[in-house]
Amino acid sequence: MASxxxxxxxxxxxxxxxxNLYRREFEFENERFPTAEHAYQAGKARKPEVKAxxxxxPSPALLAMAAHGLxxxxxxxxxxxxxxxxxxxxxxxxxxxxxxxxxxxxxTGKARLVETATVDSPVNxxxxxxxxxxxxxLGELLMEIREEFRAAERTTSQSRTRATxxxxxxxx
Length: 172
Known about the structure:
The chain is mainly alpha-helical and 172 residues long. It has helices at 36-42, 48-55, 60-68, 79-96, 99-106, 122-127, 137-164; strands at residues 4-7, 26-28, 31-33, 112-117, 129-130. It has a single domain, classed as Tetracycline Repressor, domain 2 (Orthogonal Bundle), CATH 1.10.357.40. Helix content is 49%, strand content 10%. The strands form 2 sheets. A 3-stranded parallel beta sheet has the order 1-4-5. The chain has a two-stranded antiparallel ribbon with strand order 2-3. The N and C termini lie far apart (47 Å).
């Protein structure tokens, strides 16, 4: 297994699904979203009409571009402090609702997951890395979700083991 797995474009195999632009519908906060990017940007808009405008974007990439250009007064209060928690909850929903995506994530072992953009921008250096420089927040959140799933599997496995033990004669 590679010590580092790089991903960026939604159509790249096999790790394109790690992109927030990857199309796989899921439910989040009682709404259906076609991509993680849609679910994320839906929380950014302060006004319902701005959210509707963003959701009407013809592609996830154009949605992201439009959302990055919002005026300050169109962004939900506290967005800069809330966005990472929101993204983590979105990723948890996306991967828990699609077993194949969950298994892809778990199949990365202990590899460091890195969103690697080619265009240098503050957004790309926040969520990923450009030429090895950046905070890689998306990769970090994916690795946290991966560990949550592993911990849940261990707990489930331990519970099954305890439940299937045959009682000894002394305890019967």
